[in-house]
Amino acid sequence: MPTIAAFLLFFLTFFALDGCATKVGAGGQKETRFEPRYLAKTEIDRVIDANRAEVMAGLRRVAEKLYRRNPGEWKKSGQPSLDAAVSRLFSGRTDFPELGGRREGAAALYAFSADYAGDRVLAVMAGLIGMVDAAFEHKDDFYVLDALDEQKLYNCARNVEIAVWKMSSTRTPGGQALLASNELDRSNPNLSFEREFGRVIGLLDFMSKIVADRHGRSITRLTQTVATAVFLPVGALGIK
Q1: Which structural domain range is residue 93 located in?
Q2: Which end of the chain offers a freer environment for a tag, N or C, measured as fewer CB atoms within 10 Å?
Q3: pLDDT the model gives residue 12
């Protein structure tokens, strides 16, 4: 009959193996290193890490594309270059002075206000980044005891859809889009924004389902048309 010591040895060996990370070295050979932080991570935690990283990478690509299509926007912020404007967006801060304390949904909505004369790319993307950060509980590294809310993730995905619609539909009195995104010209179409945003939405929806299934909970699916929809609550909206 196995002893208590034998059981302890088994579990210690199991968790030690789970804490090993295998990487390919410069010479093409696999290197296995022990990383203690993985002892507190489940497979789901690693999926969450990867999902959040992919969502943020997708938003960064969208921000770069928006600044390229709307070069006058980053100049409004006094940044020396497009790259500097993108770096500022993804610096980890959320309190951009030109947004007057607005964050998440309030910041994204401000981007489409006729009264706002600042960097509209900054406003809408800072809002979306803030929503994603709130949906992932302001963390980028997840462990066993960390928990997510499937409803926040679901709401965040719907908010991205609303932002996409506002970009394509909100126009100046002269009929120009406030923020140029997809190009619908039949002779030279460009739907790269739609594809990138669609990927971000899919990742968030996938994560919301994973979290809901993990906890045996259901997601409240709100019925609303995009044209009349408002940004759904994710975190502290920061509306002044």
Answers
A1: 42-228
A2: N
A3: 39
